[in-house]
Design a protein that fits this description.
By secondary structure, the protein is mostly helical. The chain has one domain. The chain contains 4 helices and no strands. Helix 1 packs across helix 3.
């Protein structure tokens, strides 16, 4: 449970970080623009997931939850 919670917190941190700066097209890519130095393979996996996953950040509201539930019921997993 602790590792799952830690993973979720790390993903949230990575999501809130600004993306790495990219180099202009005319110059060769620098190491900082093509890679992100991370502590471990696990952190790299979490970083990549935070950059490629789709997430909905919605404020909880009584009217929104049933509407979202109805919408999602049209797309079973």
């Amino acid at each position: 449970m602790d590792s799952v919670l830690c993973d979720e917190l790390l993903q949230e941190i990575f999501t809130r970080l600004s993306p790495p700066a990219t180099a202009p097209q005319s110059s060769p890519p620098s190491p900082s623009s093509t890679s992100v130095p991370l502590v471990s393979k696990r952190w790299l996996r979490l970083y990549r997931e935070s950059r490629t996953a789709l997430s909905l950040r919605l404020a909880p509201s009584a009217a929104l939850i049933p509407a979202l539930s109805d919408f999602l019921s049209n797309y079973p997993s």
